Amino acid sequence: MASRTVKDNMEQSLPPGTARRIPSLAELCDALVGLGRLKPGHRDEVLARCAAQRAHLQRQRLAPRLKGAEAHEVTDAELIASFHFPLASDPTDHLDEDRVVEVQAKMMGIPYAHIDPLKLSPELITSTVSRPFARRHCVVPLESGNGTIKVAMADPLNEELVDELQRITGRRVEAVMASRKAIQKIITEIYGFQSSVSAAEEQVRGGESTGPGPGPDLGNLEQYFRLKKVDEIEATDRHIVNAVEYLLHYAFDNRASDIHVEPRREAAVVRMRIDGVLHEVYRIPKVVHPAIISRIKMMARMDVAERRKPQDGRIKTAAGGTGGEGREVELRVSTLPVAFGEKVVLRIFDPEQILVELGELGMYPEELEAYERFIARPNGMLLVTGPTGSGKTTTLYSTLRAIATPEVNVVTIEDPIEMVVEEFNQVAVQPKVDITFPQMLRTFLRQDPDIIMVGEIRDAETAEYAVQAALTGHLVLSTLHTNDSPSTVVRLRELGVDRFLINSTLVGVVAQRLVRKVCQNCKVEELLTPDQIALLDIPMRSGRAPELKVARGKGCARCRGTGLYGRTGLFEVLDVTDGIRKLVSEEADVAVIARQARADGMRTLREVAVHKLAAGLTSFEEVMRVTVQEEHR
Ligand SMILES: [Zn+2]
Considering the entire predicted model, what is its pTM? Predict the structure, then answer.
């Protein structure tokens, strides 16, 4: 791949020769401005207001009700971060403590560590230094090997502390710098979880303390204690409650989409999926595992005593945001009996991810304009289509929320309910008690709602009632399992819907996909090869060698080395115009409808994807992964 690497601009724009000394606030601000992280106007604001702001932060810190508040002086990084300025280079993000400390470390000539909780060894940390020591001195061991130990420190210039650490560990300490906030968070999570689990384990062992270090073979222990001791440790035990609490916070902090607690032969393993990849996070002693599972089942209102049948449940809990206010997060919990016990999977539904502003879904302005026109209609049918995991639920929920007002009655029938939203009247499909898509649609019509969301149109009967509802003055939103917008129109016909009814109800169709975004923190520019351009089938001006500049993530700590961070939607928006309606009446095939739609201005998924590729938002591989070449043109 022809690659043009952008030089690390941090090396270039920092003043040389300032090593091993804490820079002054003014020097730090100037460096931040030089690196495009802070606007000159904001620098002036920091310098003008620094004394008052520092005093304000110090007072907050000393407020007696703030538990665990440190008595340390407010650092320059904390001071600057407290202003919450948007990044000069990327206004959607803000200048946080980590970004300031990164620059500070560079100026001091000390390596900076972006702490990735998934790369840490809880064992190394808790066995190296005690929690009070770690907290007081703001240190956390990152890795060890070859007679050295790498320690993240908020104050790496503190030589006394480095000496003390060398004495405690008997190793040469390699000090790296990290933000105070990042270190304290790790201390809370790792020691909190570990000590809760150890305390619970201790109880099971009946106070038979084995002291620090690796314990006895847990497999034997478990057999030994199973009969009389396991039940003594209750799911309501404080340590177990705390351990589960820590687990959840850890998952929220790391943007995990699901948590797996899996019993194995020797221990139970906790894994979390982050950006699509599973990471092992903790190992729990086997004896503690049943209590952890019971606690989760209790929170999800499941039958705690039932261990042999799979169960489903939900937990509503608060995820403490950085502002401390917290937002409500929903967890869908399922249990499964496996060979070594019960496995639990918690899927995390974060309203911040599922309910977004329509403008943030990823539509281009023209598409958004058409879409908003569709949903402004008092009646008719709007279909969203795409494979599982393409973001249809997010689109529908976000749409419903955008149009749900106190005067409007919104009802949904879903299988299952993805996330409970207070403003909607949601019903879950339950075939056992005859709650099915068509049955509920009939019931809804008697209640005269304004907007109806049907989770999915799978069969002719559901299609019939959905069309009926759209015809009788309701706005109906639903999904179909088709690949693109034009084939959705044809699919309705295949489901037996009369072409006259399609024409009088269908307002628009949106096909969608989710692509991963290039990490904006580590992206470099590169050129696509002629082969890649040919694969994408991009029309290029003839007579010149084709050239297309795109972006690729090199991989950094923020994106965990994947080069990708976050996702965005691709939308193919088909407006049901007079031209389309004419073709529906004529029972035209998909290719003809697609041609008409394109003539009416529809951009295909592939075209939209290439636009995002050229804008440096997503990668070539992602475009190839989620979109196919259109067969019908
Ligand atoms: Zn990155």
Answer: 0.70
